[in-house]
Design goal:
- With 200 residues, the chain is α+β, with helices and mostly antiparallel strands.
- It has helices spanning 3-8, 40-113, 121-140, 166-169; strands at residues 143-145, 158-164, 176-181, 184-186, 189-192, 194-199.
- The protein contains four helices and six strands.
- Strands 1-4-5 form a three-stranded antiparallel β-sheet. It has a three-stranded mixed β-sheet with strand order 2-6-3.
- β4 and β5 form a beta hairpin.
- α2 (40-113) packs antiparallel against α3 (121-140).
Length: 200
């Protein structure tokens, strides 16, 4: 019988080169390191350092919050100043237009009082058309004439330039009798107060 046949039948002896290795007794594994002992002074120092960093972080955070608030306030202030500047320029431009409107009204009034009214009728019609056109353009900008005649005098809306006896005017004292110069509103604000005669 051959050696191969002996191994298959379990009759062959193990070879010396495949003999089992002796079991390890664990003596070669490293021993776990002992935890290093930290001195109390070192612990106290580390705690102080942590507290210092914590306080510094808190100061930096507070400075960031203040800077963010200042930036937000600056943005609001800049936006408000820009709106106020635009409003001032707008009111100044509207006052210029009102000056032109006053001149048109005076020209129309003068023409209507002219003795030879027929001679200036063509000019008057042109002035009236221009007057209506300017009023329409102002209306698109929110500007409208102020109703003052017959109203109670209001110093916030009227400027008294003359007084008339109430009995003579047939109205209660403090009533606006006549409008000398038309006042205008833009939105709900007074763009220009009306110059009026007031019953006294």
């Amino acid at each position: 019988m051959s050696e191969r046949e002996d191994r298959l039948n379990g009759q062959s002896e193990p070879r010396e080169d495949f003999a089992e290795a002796p079991a390890s007794d664990g003596g070669d594994l490293p021993e776990p390191a002992e935890p290093a002992e930290v001195r109390p002074e070192e612990v106290a120092r580390l705690r102080e350092e942590v507290e210092r960093y914590r306080q510094e972080a808190e100061r930096n955070w507070q400075q960031f919050l203040h800077a963010a608030a200042d930036l937000e306030n600056y943005k609001k202030l800049a936006a408000r100043r820009q709106e106020e500047a635009v409003a001032r320029v707008r009111r100044a431009m509207l006052h210029l237009v009102l000056g032109v409107l006053d001149n048109l009204e005076r020209a129309i009034q003068y023409g209507e009082q002219a003795q030879d009214n027929q001679a200036v009728e063509g000019i008057l019609e042109g002035l009236r058309m221009t007057h209506r056109s300017v009023l329409e353009q102002l209306s698109l900008l929110g500007v409208r004439p102020m109703e003052a005649a017959g109203a109670r005098f209001d110093p916030a809306r009227h400027e008294a330039v003359d007084q008339v006896p109430a009995e003579e005017a047939g109205v209660e004292p403090g009533t606006v009798v006549d409008v000398v110069q038309q006042g205008y509103l833009v939105g709900e604000e007074v763009l220009r107060p009306a110059r009026v005669r007031v019953a006294q």
